[in-house]
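Render this sequence as a predicted structure.
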Amino acid sequence: MGVIFLFVLERPFFYDYHPHMQIFFEELAFALILASLFGLTVEKYQREEFVALVKNERVELKRDVFLYAYGHTIPDQIRQEIRDTILDCPFHRENLRIDWKVAKSGLGDESVLIEKRYAYSLINDTKEQQEYHYSLTQVTADRGLRGVHSHSVKIRLADKSEKILKSKPTEADDDHLQTLETVIPMNPGEVIEVCVTMVATRRNYGDDTYSSKHPVVGQTTINFRAEGGLALKASASCKGTKCAIRTDDDRPNFYAWEINEGLLPFQGIVIGWSPMAEQDTSTENQKT
């Protein structure tokens, strides 16, 4: 529009009869040209910045929608913990399987040999590549009747290849500590299978806890097998309540439980065991 004004103002009509109007319209034309240039440059840049800001705010609102809607009465420290361990967690685990085998240790009746196996699917929930860091250090010293003998991890990647880790001394060359660690890049939505196996000597009574640093969904199954004629009582609990018994439970040789609800990070599953009294043993035999 400004360029058209300037073209028209160059006609002799304005020079001869309306010189003052020519000056006014020339200023107006230059103002229109400058406004157009401003709209194409500075204003466009500011508009793009504003749109990006709105998009970021929308993403933050979606991420914290639970806290915005329901968390107004939650203390700030708890809100921050929810953000750090749940909302900002890029991974979750599915279909956790806990499988324990307990046998005689050969060190006397006061100890048992436990093989612990934990298997789960790990999923990258984000739209970006994420690095999965696996790191676990175990005390291997023989503390009385307790010590870890071996610790291994098998990870099946999305391309069906496998990565196997075996325990090794820490950098401090401390024979009493063994560590496993690795870093695996995972694409958006990628799923890998993780299987952790540990063999340890424990007393013939005690308890142990499994907890995940990632949220767990799907069905969690827990198996406890007593082998070699061992007569043990076993129990499993989570969130302060006993786990549901599965239909394939066959006590006292095979204990089977399940959890059909989500688990938050570090919500532990406690498994306990103790020798079965002779009276309990005879009762179980009568049932079978």
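Summary. The chain has a mean pLDDT of 78. Residues 19-40 form the longest helix (22 residues).
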